[in-house]
Specification:
globular; mainly alpha; single chain; two-stranded antiparallel ribbon; 506 residues
Amino acid sequence: MTAMMMVSCLSDLDVKPIDPFVTSADKVYTTKESYKQGLAKLYATFGLTGQRGPAGNQDVGGVDEGFSSFVRSLWYMQELTTDEAVWTYGNDADGTIFNLHFNTWLPSDGIPEALYARIANVAALSNEFIRVTTGKTDDPDFKNFQAEARFLRALAYFYGMDLYGRLPFVTEKDLPGAFFPPMIQRAALFEYIEKELIAIKLDMGAPRFEYARADRAACAMLLAKLYLNAEVYIGQPKYTEALTELNEVIAAGYTLSPRYANLFRADNDTNNSEIIFAQAFDGARSQAFSMTQVMINGNAGNGGWAGLRTTSAFVGKFPTLTEARAIFAKEDKGQSLNIDAVSVSTQGYGVFKFRNITAAGVESPNNSTGFPDTDYPMFRLADAYLMYAEAVLRGGSGGTRANALAYVNAIRTRSGDVTAGNAPGAITDQQLTLDFILDERARELYWEGHRRIDLIRFGKFTGGSYLWPWKGGIKDGTAIEEKRKIFPVPASDLGTNPNLKQNDGY
């Protein structure tokens, strides 16, 4: 079992590190506090990269340690492949980032390989934790711990199913040892994730029981995402099932942040009650070259790497650039709207949505470290509202068009933004269409890791029905192949596991 010494910034899980020299489960797990620490490691493995921050003694070998961050590689694959994000990155020796921009990725590319390995890492750690908590679930705390571990494993497998279609598959029933994991097909993995989430939901913590720990609302949200995309994953619409879960999420007590910008500030763990599930970061205690650090330093300032920006196609989704959500660095900051060459970092508007300052505008006390306190929201209420509206428009039962319109308008008329005079404003029932929902999801959720999934679900990712600058490696965009809806199995894995088969077209 991997030694666990990561200190989480979750309050209840913030306990002393486990002795890094202890390697057997019976010696590691001796007190309830040690089980909390094991659970903390499972949460941390989504954002941190190794046993020492910000780098060193990494969990996943053979790849750049920063790339091996789960949420960082996930963000690259969900955003850099679309109209929302472009990056001129100097440390792109193998061309992986440009291949993502140009939709020309290969089985040998490092970023898809890193996330593939990280998914296996999450599964292995979760399986071990589930094994050692089995038989202890008469204690409500242990039942809760195990349910959270199963949720995190399901979350990793969900993204694996979405990105790669099929994966090597192991559960707690597969004891540690040398063997070649079988490959599970997408439909079977969908069924497994669905059954797991249904089975554990009531054992999860009550909604909002502790920030950054998954609760019942997070479980329902993941189920809703599974169902909303079911037509893509298994060829069967499940919009009614999605609405059942979304009604539960909406009733869980989360509320919209009055100010949109506050959701992406250094104190976003305390300044709002909209975020349902987040990857927590702390500039002093959980340093990593991970996602919010990349989005903040990837723009400019405080040793910023520069070059992280967006395309004119995405900027064009905003009728006016004065609204609260259009947080761009434009011509007055030396950026041009159009990108004639991806390699030129001043071409394309910068995105300053994520900041390491508080809602009050005060610099984070840890800003001098170069690592932010800003957390990365994975699920939030506004997303649930937009998912609800989409499921209703697609014909799902259990929701109403009137509620869908009300939820969309609640997002567009946040009270603080209305007071500031920069809320986008309410729409009419006639304007509430699926095309509007796709664009509204872009305006509301950009750079939060949703865009590729959305474009695929709406039939706009592959083919030529929707073009954006540099899609397919062409300045004005070109159609891309259907095979690009999923990524290839990494060549390195194909060479070591005879049970794996490459995805079609690769």
